[in-house]
Write a structure and sequence with these properties.
Layout (H helix, E strand, L loop, with lengths): L7 H18 L9 H8 L3 H5 L5 H22 L5 H15 L1 H10 L5 H10 L3 H4 L11 H21 L6 H18 L2
Helix pairs in contact: 1-2, 4-5, 5-10, 6-9, 7-9
Amino acid sequence: MAGIKGNRRVLYTKKTIRDSLIKLLETKEIHQITVTDICKNADINRGTFYAHYKDAFDLLQSMEDELFNKILDYIDETPVEEYSDSLLLKVIELISENKDLCKVLLCNQRDNKILDRLIYVASKTDIEQIYSNSNEFTKAHLNYYIRYVVGGCISIIQAWLENDLPESPSELVKIINTVNKLNIEYYK
């Protein structure tokens, strides 16, 4: 018999709770959502909710952490030279697979710290190696550059999510890389 973590009923319940929160976040900010709202929407009792999460913030944080842990795994397994193609594609495919959650996190929530987390993740990568051959790129500019690139990518991804993913993940990677190349060429 599978343990509690692998129990299909538990997995289904957690998915139902998560789906309920995502649906509520489409029209409300996280601080406006109560456990009762989540439970009513998921058609579960509060005890079931509290068996898995402390509150709505804990639930949202666990969902966000799960996404970021996958991104960190992708970073660890991807060579630096493949960040702009392979890594970016993996991340955009992850966003596509989790479209509703990502739309809520990136487009609807004003109070979240997702951009800060993405900038932190980007700063922990070896992105510096990619641009070390540029004469005008110095270590002092790295923080600004990371913020600029991540902010630009997030803006493109937000527009993609808001338009219901009209391009495939690989097409979006080409768009982002084209914009980044135009930017790099401009500053050479």
